[in-house]
């Protein structure tokens, strides 16, 4: 499993980028938001990845953050949402906005993405509300104090370990409040795991 790529941005297209890692070019599908976050061609970049495997294809999809990748996984778990539609949604909405839209049942916001009609937007909101409502509602101001991206990555780490979104976000918020500004990802995850196991 390829989890992330660190290399040089070789080129970009409408829906993809080529990342040169040690002389090997990886074609990575990506949302417009991720493509804009990669930086200028020729510069170093990092993308979090998801490998899609079908009967007659293998496709690598890249994301600017682990949070965006987690959202891609959630979205493609909804019936009728393939990789292309999930990337369209992530192009139209930042993860935090998508989280708020689903938590509040705002299907019109989700339907702003290309290829997402009212019925599909309704299905996305209904199927994901219980899974992600805790992320939107549980992340309080304390999480913002963490090192950039650390709190989101810590929540992602707990989700990957099987914790529910609300459990993960509340535990990370409590850990961040105790550790204070600038806490490292490792410290956040360790303390959040202890707090989550006690709750």
Structure explained in plain terms:
There is one protein chain. By secondary structure, the chain is an alpha+beta fold. The protein has helices at residues 32-37, 66-76, 83-92, 95-103, 107-110, 118-138, 141-144, 150-160, 165-179, 185-198; strands spanning 4-12, 16-21, 24-30, 44-53, 58-63. It has a five-stranded mixed barrel. A hairpin with a 4-residue loop joins strand 4 and strand 5 (58-63). Helix 4 packs across helix 6, helix 8 (150-160) crosses helix 10 (185-198) and helix 9 packs across helix 10 (185-198). It is globular. The model is unreliable at 133-148 (pLDDT under 50).
Topology:
Blueprint: E1 4-12, E2 16-21, E3 24-30, H1 32-37, E4 44-53, E5 58-63, H2 66-76, H3 83-92, H4 95-103, H5 107-110, H6 118-138, H7 141-144, H8 150-160, H9 165-179, H10 185-198
Parallel strand pairs: 3-5
Antiparallel strand pairs: 1-2, 1-4, 2-3, 4-5
Helix pairs in contact: 2-3, 4-6, 6-9, 8-9, 8-10, 9-10
Sheet with most strands = 5 strands, mixed, barrel
Class derived from helix and strand content = alpha+beta
Task: Quickly count the helices.
Answer: 10
Q: Considering DSSP H and I runs of 4 or more, what fraction of the residues is helical? A: 40-55%
Average pLDDT over all residues: 82
Strand order of the largest sheet: 1-2-3-5-4
Cα-atom Rg, whole angstroms? 17 Å
Q: In whole angstroms, how far apart are the ends?
A: 32 Å
Strand content: 15-25%
Encode the helix/strand succession as letters.
EEEHEEHHHHHHHHH
Give the CA-based shape: globular
- What's the total number of strands? 5
Low-confidence stretches: 133-148
């Amino acid at each position: 499993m390829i989890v992330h790529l660190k290399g040089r941005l070789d080129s970009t297209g409408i829906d993809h980028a080529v990342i040169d890692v040690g002389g090997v070019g990886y074609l990575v599908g990506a949302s417009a938001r991720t493509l804009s976050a990669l930086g200028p061609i020729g510069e170093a970049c990092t993308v979090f990845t998801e490998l899609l495997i079908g009967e007659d294809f293998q496709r690598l999809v890249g994301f600017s953050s682990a949070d965006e990748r987690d959202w891609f996984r959630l979205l493609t778990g909804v019936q009728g949402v393939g990789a292309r539609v999930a990337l369209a949604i992530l192009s139209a909405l930042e993860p935090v906005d998508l989280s708020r839209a689903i938590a509040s049942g705002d299907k019109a916001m989700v339907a702003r993405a290309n290829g997402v009609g009212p019925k599909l937007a309704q299905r996305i909101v209904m199927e994901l509300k219980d899974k992600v409502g805790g992320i939107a509602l549980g992340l309080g101001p304390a999480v913002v104090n963490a090192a950039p991206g650390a709190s989101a990555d810590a929540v992602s780490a707990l989700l990957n370990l099987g914790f529910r979104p609300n459990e993960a976000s509340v535990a990370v918020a409590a850990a961040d409040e105790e550790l204070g500004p600038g806490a490292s990802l490792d410290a956040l995850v360790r303390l959040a795991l202890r707090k989550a196991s006690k709750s």
